[in-house]
Amino acid sequence: MWDGVLRRGRLQLVLWSFFCVSLFCAFGLSAAGDLGDWYQGSRGYREGVADARDSRVPMMVLFYANWCGYCRKLQGEILTNDEVQEVLEDVVKIRINVDKPDARVLAERYGVSGIPALFYHKSMRHKPQRISTAGSPESFVTMVKRLLASS
């Protein structure tokens, strides 16, 4: 009798765990908060490149995955920060989820070997520069201001 109860309890635990993980992945509970006006995916990449070229403004491209803890930290603690969003206001911003089928070509083009991977384009004529995603919002703001000043 107890054997059947224990088996049923384990099954319920496994199913509940699967349900929670599925919700996490499906809804991207990535602690990303509100990132503002980021283009999304490969289609967004094409639109963002056109926008950056037409507006003659710098561009940033972020490669991430919903399951990546460092990506969630970057998006939840740094990119949602008010000062960071303010300094990125005049930058075209693009997010590429590496788990999407159409992201592979872009990730290869940028030479992405780990995530999160953040790239800065001074202009569309310049090669992208990989920038650090570690540190605090304050250090990120300082770095971005330095990059923008060199543009």
Folded structure, characterized:
The chain has about 150 residues and is of the alpha/beta class. It has 2 domains: about 1-30; about 30-150, Glutaredoxin (3-Layer(aba) Sandwich), CATH 3.40.30.10. It is about 50% helix and about 15% strand. The protein contains 6 helices and 5 strands, in the order αβαβααβαββα. The chain has helices at about 1-25, 40-55, 70-80, 80-85, 105-110, 135-150; strands at about 40, 60-65, 90-95, 115-120, 130. The chain has a 5-stranded mixed β-sheet, with helices on one face. The chain is globular and about 60 Å long. Mean pLDDT is about 85; it is low at about 15-30.
The CATH topology of the largest domain comes to Glutaredoxin
Overall pLDDT level: 83
Indicate the overall shape: globular
Give Rg in angstroms.
Answer: 19 Å
Defining key terms:
5-stranded mixed sheet; 2 domains; 5 strands; alpha/beta; 52% helix; 151 residues; globular
Q: SSE layout and pairings?
A:
Elements: H1 2-27, E1 38-40, H2 41-55, E2 59-64, H3 69-78, H4 82-87, E3 92-97, H5 103-110, E4 117-121, E5 129-131, H6 137-149
Parallel strand pairs: 1-3, 2-3
Antiparallel strand pairs: 2-4, 4-5
Write a short abstract of this structure.
The chain is α/β, with parallel strands linked by helices and 151 residues long. Helices cover 52% and strands 15% of the residues.
